[in-house]
Specification:
By secondary structure, the protein is mainly α. The chain is about 90% helix and about 0% strand.
Length: about 55
């Protein structure tokens, strides 16, 4: 897995966490839900990349 993709996956998880926090502070359920989804998607991609890397070596 390339470094750029790893960074993109981490950035997606961080973006989701930020959205979730902003949603919680502002009381926006939509933002919290979107943030949770982005965070889960980013974390899932990171986990997939780790598994892929483990089988490469």
């Amino acid at each position: 897995m390339s470094i750029a993709k790893k960074i993109a996956h981490k950035a997606e998880a961080i973006k989701g966490e930020a959205k979730k926090t902003v949603g919680r502070v502002t009381g926006s359920g939509r933002l919290r839900t979107e943030g949770r989804g982005d965070q889960i998607k980013g974390n899932t991609k990171q986990a997939g990349a780790k598994i892929k890397d483990a089988f490469k070596h």
